[in-house]
Amino acid sequence: MGQESTKTALYSGKFPRSLDVKKRVAIPSAWVSGEGEEFHVVPHPNEGQLMVMGREELSSYKKLFQDLTTMTQAEKKVAIREFYGEAHAVATDRQGRIVLPEKHCERAGLGGEVVFIGVGSHFEIWPKERYEETQPSRLATFQRAAEEIGL
Length: 151
Known about the structure:
Layout: E1 14-19, E2 24-26, E3 38-43, E4 50-53, H1 55-66, H2 73-86, E5 88-91, E6 97-99, H3 102-108, E7 112-118, E8 123-127, H4 128-133, H5 135-148
Antiparallel strand pairs: 1-7, 2-6, 3-4, 3-5, 4-8, 7-8
Helix pairs in contact: 1-2
C-alpha cells in the first residue's frame, strides 16, 4: 500500500494540528515522503494518546513482547494479539493527511486541536489540552533524566 523507505525514520519536534470532522489530520511535511506513505496507528494502552509508526517499528514490537521475562507464553500471546489487533494501517493522501480511525480517536479523546510529538522511531498524537496539562510533570521528569545523563 505505500512507499517503502530505505532509511530509518527519525521523528522529532512538536507540531500543533487540527483534526477535521472526518478525522483527517496533516502529518508534518518533514515526516512524510509522499502520497500513499503507510503508517500504523495504535492507541497507547495507558497514556491516552495515539502512537503512529512505520511498518518496521510496528514489526519490532513482537520480539519485545516475546522477550518479556515476567509473563507466561499464554500472556505474551494475549499481549501480541491485543497490540496488533489494535494497530490500524493508514496512508497519506496528496496533502500529507491521514484519516485516523474513529474508535482510536474516541479512546484517546482526540477531536479538534491535537499535538504531534516526535519520539524518535515513531510519533504520537495527543489531545492538545491533555498535552498542555501534563507539561509540568513531563518537564520535571525530563530535567531529572537530562541531569542523570550529563546533558
